[in-house]
């Protein structure tokens, strides 16, 4: 099963990269860009998942153990159809 994980910083956690992106956008004339936050997107195939619920459970375990820092980051998991 193909899984997409979106990882973002939790509210209240400083985001210096987001601020740098916002500053660069303003410098390029995009003055309306505000509150910029950056994150990361991870796509992976979970080949041993029996079904979508199993794939989501395995992806959650991966996030909790490696992919995300649960102290500073939150994540959402999207299970997509097998490719």
UniProtKB/TrEMBL annotation:
It catalyses: N(2)-formyl-N(1)-(5-phospho-beta-D-ribosyl)glycinamide + L-glutamine + ATP + H2O = 2-formamido-N(1)-(5-O-phospho-beta-D-ribosyl)acetamidine + L-glutamate + ADP + phosphate + H(+). HAMAP family: PurS. Keywords: ATP-binding, Cytoplasm, Ligase, Nucleotide-binding, Purine biosynthesis. This is Phosphoribosylformylglycinamidine synthase subunit PurS. It is found in: Cytoplasm. GO terms for cellular component: cytoplasm. Its EC number is 6.3.5.3. One of its GO terms (biological process) is 'de novo' IMP biosynthetic process. It is an enzyme of class 6 (ligase). Part of the FGAM synthase complex composed of 1 PurL, 1 PurQ and 2 PurS subunits. Part of the phosphoribosylformylglycinamidine synthase complex involved in the purines biosynthetic pathway. Catalyzes the ATP-dependent conversion of formylglycinamide ribonucleotide (FGAR) and glutamine to yield formylglycinamidine ribonucleotide (FGAM) and glutamate. The FGAM synthase complex is composed of three subunits. PurQ produces an ammonia molecule by converting glutamine to glutamate. PurL transfers the ammonia molecule to FGAR to form FGAM in an ATP-dependent manner.
